[in-house]
Amino acid sequence: MDSKEKVDLVRCLLVGSVNSETFDFQPQLGSELIEIRPLRAEDFTELYTVASDPLIWTQHPNKNRHEEEEFKAFFLDALNSKGALAVIDNKEDRLIGSSRYHGYNEERDEIEIGWTFLARSHWGGTYNQELKRLMLQHAFKFVSNVIFLIGRNNFRSQRAVEKIGGVLSGSRRDANGLESLVYRIDKSFQKIQE
């Protein structure tokens, strides 16, 4: 272990965070239910099949994301973010959605989880809860706080984050400049849930 790695390890043990060079934005995560892996260019067709359902986007600020050109822009942004993840249903061996890590902030000791969508066939809690459990577990190796920025009218996502312990803590502009509600889960809450 070199001196930089030792410093990062000590900092992680003391304050629960390390720098963004160490944060793995595209980990391989999994459980019996799902696999989470880095999103790849070749995932476009299968992921668009999921995203083409207009009902997924009815409460989202970008209600046209089910249209192919809109989704292409979203998908390219996801690939370029270097934090996008594909979600695979292990039982069906098919891609069912996507999520992303974004906005690592060492000063705030936080990272954002967002851009999550799942096929409607996988709505209802189990798959989203498992996705977020795995992503939170990974994030808390590096930071003490995870935030979710959710559109004011996206009540479905607000309820989903509240179900996993998210607490409304204010509002701020998201990566697209839209005013969003900030939900937060801190590491101490996550330990209670384990």
What does this entry look like structurally?
34% of the residues lie in helices and 29% in strands. The N terminus is likely disordered. With 194 residues, it is an alpha+beta fold. Strands 1-2-3-4-5-6-8-7 form an 8-stranded mixed β-sheet, with helices on both faces. It is globular, with a radius of gyration of 16 Å. The two termini are 30 Å apart. The relative contact order is 0.15.
List keywords for this structure.
194 residues, alpha+beta, 8 strands, disordered N terminus, eight-stranded mixed sheet
Write the layout of secondary structure elements.
Layout: H1 3-15, E1 29-30, E2 34-38, H2 44-51, H3 68-81, E3 84-89, E4 94-105, E5 110-118, H4 126-139, E6 145-151, H5 155-163, E7 167-173, E8 179-186, H6 187-193
Parallel strand pairs: 5-6
Antiparallel strand pairs: 1-2, 2-3, 3-4, 4-5, 6-8, 7-8
Radius of gyration: 16 Å
Note the run of SSEs as H and E. HEEHHEEEHEHEEH
Instruction: Count all strands and give the number.
Output: 8
Largest sheet, spatial ordering of strands: 1-2-3-4-5-6-8-7
- Supply the helix-strand structural class: alpha+beta
Count of helical regions = 6
What's the short story on this structure?
This protein is 34% helix and 29% strand. It has 194 residues and is α+β, with helices and mostly antiparallel strands.
